[in-house]
Structures are given as C-alpha cells and as structure tokens.
Amino acid sequence: MDTPKTPDCEDKRLASLQALNILDTPFEERFERITRFASQLFDVPIALVSLIDQDRQWFKSAQGLDVRETSRAISFCGHTILSRNILTTQDALSDTRFYDNPLVTGDPHIRFYAGCPLHTESGMALGTLCLIDRRPRELNDNDLEALRDLALVIEREINQPELNIIDAVTNLSNRHSFLALAEKGLALCSRSATPVSLVFIELDRGEEGDAEEESAEQKRMLLKFGEYLNSRLDQSALVARLAKNQFAVLLIDASVAEATLAVMQFNTAVEELGQQEKWSHALRFDFGIAEFNSDRHTTVEKLLADADLAMYDSKKRKRYAAMKV
Q1: CB–CB of 20/60 below 8 Å?
Q2: Which residues are 119's β-sheet partners?
Q3: Per the database record, which ranges form the GGDEF domain (predicted)?
Q4: What is the pLDDT of residues 286-297, one digit of tens each?
C-alpha cells in the first residue's frame, strides 16, 4: 500500500483549511444535496465531500458511509490532493497503490474510486468530492466533466458560504440552484440515455396557506415535507422549493410510470405523517410529471413547464370529477 505523500505547501494548506472553520461541523444540506445528487447521477453507493486534515480524512458530507473520518495514511483522497487532476482507479484490487489498503480488503470494500480535488480561491488543496463503488467501474470523459462541475459547486459552497442557494424554511435547494444542478444532470443523463422524470408539486395547505406570513406550524409542515421529499420519495436525486407552495423533484432512472408509482407511495407516507403530527390543516398536494426528452426539453425550464402543465391538467380532471359526483 502506498501512503499518500505530503504536499510541498502542507503548512499553508493546513492553515487555509483551518481558517475556513469547517472541520468538525455538522452535516449541512448545501453539501448533502450535492453528494445525494452525485450518488444518484453516477449510480454509486457512496459519495463524499472529504477534507484532508493533518492526520485524518474527515467527511463534511457522506452518502452511504456511516463513519465521519478515517486515517489520512490509508485515504485515497490523500493521493488525490497531490494533483489538480481527477484521480481514478477502476479496480483497486488491481492497483498497486491500493490493492492491500484496509479500505479495500475490509469495509467499505472499495473497488472503484474517482476523486476530484477541491481548492480554496488561492489554490490550496482542501480535499475532494469523491465517488466510491464496491464493484469495478469506469468513467468516460462526459462523466469526468460532470464530476468536475459538481466539484466546482462544492468549492463555491466552501469558499463563498454566503451564496443564497438554499431555501431558508425547508433547507432545500432554491429555484436558482436547482436549475443550475439539474442542467448538468440532464446533460449527463442525455448522453448516457438514462431516463429522467421531473415531478412538479404544488401544496394545498388550506386557507391558512394563503396568508402573507407563514405560521410556526406551517414552517414545521414545510420543513417536514422537504425532509420527506429527500428521504421518502424513491429515486429523488435533486429536490427544490421553487416558490411558496411549489416544489420540484428530479428522479434519475425513472420513467413517468415509475415516477407516478413513487409519488403515490410518497403520498401515503405524507398522509401517515399528517396523522402523527395532528396538524390543524391536512398536508395535501397535487403533482404533474414530465419525462425528459432532449429534443423537446432544451432547457430545464421547458421540462418544468411540461411538468407544471401536467399538474394543471390533473387538477382540472379532479375538479371535473368532483362536479359530477
């Protein structure tokens, strides 16, 4: 096993990392949304934002991994920060640098690894955005470009935490950040012929939902609803609050039929949540789904518009059915 070398500028690098005051802080949605998206987009069980401290590798975000840190001496990311290039190994068991690494021979049984280095604005290496699989894999040039793009988003989050990209009430992406990330995801899925569906959701929270200011109960409802969109809607890769009562969810590797089934199951979970919470107004929603077509949907906005139209048609049919009863 090769132990990662120490960069020539190690003292300055560590000083830059410490100055960010990011080590040993809780998970944050602004990073979690990227690793969730990366895990779905690249179909890998593990996606991490890893920061390389003096003697440890510490995870600011971790999908598919329960630990928060490992030794730097056995880290793959310790090797990655030595260059500005993406480091990949298709099969760690066949790689002389890693074949006997305890992270390969034991948990989490790494076979495939791809890490893109993260830097400060002054160019100091901090860590990586990395993808890990337990089976051999290979990334093509389009995949590598998409990984770089996501790493740039992480870099902006680290270096410019004041950027307004998260909805303050739900902790979901806002419309602006959703459009930027969805564009990258759709481009990659188009090239790999992976089906993608977009779900447009509009909440109906009763008359109180029309009030200018949201009550404490409404904010709790919105926060819970956002949490459920992230955790209970199958194949949800990217979730956003677009407007006061409007949400969007990008589902990777999902046809309209599969997305519809996922939303119906999600609705059951939301109904059960309402029964547990005993809110004064039921948390109901309407939805529409549009499947991505690269010829028709040349922008994310066009895909959103089709999903919005599908939701409107669904609401119209429900009103018509209610009038006939």
Answers
A1: no
A2: 125
A3: 194-325
A4: 999 999 999 999
Task: Retrieve residue 137's tokens.
Answer: 């894999």
Q: What is the mean pLDDT of residues 246-253?
A: 95
Does the pTM surpass 0.70? The reply is yes
**How much is the pLDDT for 324?**
63
Phi–psi pair at 274, nearest 5 degrees: -60, -40
Task: Express each pLDDT in 154-191 by its tens digit.
Answer: 999 999 887 778 898 998 999 999 999 999 899 999 98
User: Got the DSSP string for 94-131?
Assistant: G-TTTTT-HHHHSTT---EEEEEEEE-TT--EEEEEEE
User: Which pLDDT score, from 0 to 100, does residue 325 have?
Assistant: 54
pLDDT tens track for 28-41? 988 999 999 999 99
The CA-CA-CA angle for residues 100, 103, 108, to 5°, reads 135
167 within 8 A of 173, measured Cβ to Cβ:
yes
Query: Rounded to the nearest 5 degrees, what angle is found at the Cα of 301, between the Cα atoms of 167 and 297?
Result: 140
CB 163 within 8 A of CB 155: no
Over range 45-73, report the average pLDDT: 97
Give the start-end residues of each E strand in the chain: 46-52, 56-63, 69-71, 87-89, 112-119, 125-133, 196-204, 236-243, 246-252, 284-291
Q: State CA 201 to chain mean position distance.
A: 19
Question: What distance in Å separates the CA atoms of residue 41 and residue 231, rounded to the nearest whole number?
Answer: 16
Minimal CA–CA distance to 217: which of 261, 283, 165, 154? 283
Q: Which residues pair with 324 in a beta bridge?
A: none
Written as six digits, the tokens of 27 are 């998970």
- What structural domains does the chain harbor? 10-159 (3.30.450.40), 175-324 (3.30.70.270)
